[in-house]
Amino acid sequence: MKRAIKAGLVILTAxxxxxxxxxxxxxxxxxxxxxxILYYRAPMDPSIxxxxxxxxxxxxxxxxxxxxQQAAPKPDAFEVSPYRRQEIGLxxxxxxxxxxxxxxxxxxxxxxxxxxxxxxEDYLAALASDRSAxxxxxxxxxxxxASLLESSRLRLRLLGLSNAQITAVGRSGQPDSGLLLSHGxxxxxxxxxxxxxxxxxxxxxxxxxxxxxxxxxxRVFKGDVVSIDPVLNPKTRATRVRVEIKYPGGVLxxxxxxxxxxxVNLGVHLAVPRDAVVDTGLRQTVFVDLSHGYLAPRxxxxxxxxxHWVEILKGLKAGDRVVTSGNFLIDSESDFRAAAQGFxxx
Length: 346
Description:
By secondary structure, the chain is α+β, with helices and mostly antiparallel strands. It contains 7 helices and 17 strands.
């Protein structure tokens, strides 16, 4: 029995040897091709290569790169080794659909507005004159009254009131006395704030405003945007916004400066962390992780900035993994590789 088992093992070993020598020629050839060394690269910087074995300045041997190793998934992709990723502190995040909230911060001051009060008085007088003139039989009187009413309405528009607010003034029959003086601890006050041209498209009547001052630590004064001047100041490139502060508690007086925060809800948009975007002034780039150690630069078009997030209008899709830390080192490294390839180096 033992002799039979021993003979069987000898036959099996011989058969395997014959299969390896005869029918396995193509497999051996593939293995040889896979083990073919293309070049050697520096262990601490994969962009530095050598056709022959060598050591770097620290005495570390160059790493062989075999033909079987995966090629770059895209022409502009480049490999960053795990050691290099750890060295530069590379971190990843994702492009995602998320609600974006932006806080527009500016300086404001408490003041009364006798000019606006006077303009409201003139509008009410012109409105009464127009109503009387409509009963007149003289067309000239009607035209003059209508022209005066339109001029007074235009003046209110230039001072920042909307058509709805002008209509409300007409219905009330009297100007806003709060534009001249306060009527008690909780009577509304006017906060005037300058909003720069770049932020102006986001400002809307009715938006909530929070105001604070170092003079009143811990106090938050709340209000609403009630009017926006339609004219831009050519010197400051800003527009004046009026905010009605409710329930000031009698502590605010004309001339007091406040820090105003206007919160804007931008809606749900595709966004990436702010640190993911490398902005050179001429282009905005995000580095996308392609897995298997490869990264690729992706030109993007950015939209609104909202705190830690940046809206992406073009160039990415939800779920893309992007580099959020170490971008500038990656950017310089990719530029170096592109330049090397331009000179015929891999």
